[in-house]
Amino acid sequence: MNSIDAPKRPPLLTLSGVAKTYGSGTLALRDVDAEIRQGDFVSLVGPSGCGKSTLLRIIAGLIAPTAGGIRWATPDGARPADIGFVFQDATLMPWASVLDNVHLPLKLRGVARDKARPQLMDALDRVGLADFAGAFPRELSGGMKMRVSLARALVTAPPVLLMDEPFAALDEFTREKLDDDLLELWRSQRWTVIFVTHSIYESVYLSERVLVMGARPGRVLDAVAIDASHPRGPAFRRSHGYVDQCATVSAALREGALP
Ligand code: ADP
Fold first, then answer.
1. How many angstroms separate the CA atoms of 37 and 120, rounded?
2. Which pTM value belongs to this model?
3. Which of 18, 114, 188, 196 has its CA 20 to 30 A from that of 123?
4. Rounded CA gap, 75 and 79, in Å?
């Protein structure tokens, strides 16, 4: 598949004039217009405080915009019932095994562990942790904990996965490995991924499109299409195309930071 295909995909959601003012009076977002297409891998990149997490939480339905809205291109126009969310902190239950942590979303839906076991093992297998089902979070590295968090988000097979700086706390080697694994999962599962990062390099490596955001007030400055085929890998990271596209995103960010 090539990113050239991306514009042909049908829309999944359209943000129109989205604004958010918190109760404290902080204007976190203003006039955000953007379209996310089905099967897209879109990154939101921008400086700390530009409203990336706020926008992600609005898309998730965790908070409401104060102006504007989201139109979902679902048959009933409603937000899909099942949206996966992965945070920077793996947020695992320390007293529960890996299997029980991944079981949580299904348990909340009333599916007993024994019945869910094939699904749980499949999710763990997909993130490379099938041998760690009985382990506890304290026995795992930071990267493995994040894989558990990813498996927990995948276990209900959500069509949309929202990720808020999921790998930011990991060392660079682990982060690159997880980036590669995430891209492989995305290619095989065909979900829509919306990925928040403040790393230009990570955004270009992963995405079909990068939405560049600026601060004060938070808004989308530019949408940069990343024209690179898959699978991506070390050769892509070293290519002129990659460096050039990182420079394009960087320039858009700098332009947005100008007074
Ligand atoms: P980013 O994810 O880009 O770092 P955020 O969306 O977290 O940005 O924050 C955008 C702005 O909104 C910041 O100025 C932040 O301090 C403010 N903000 C975020 N969450 C809240 C909240 N719950 N209450 C008040 N202000 C908030």
1. 29
2. 0.92
3. 196
4. 10
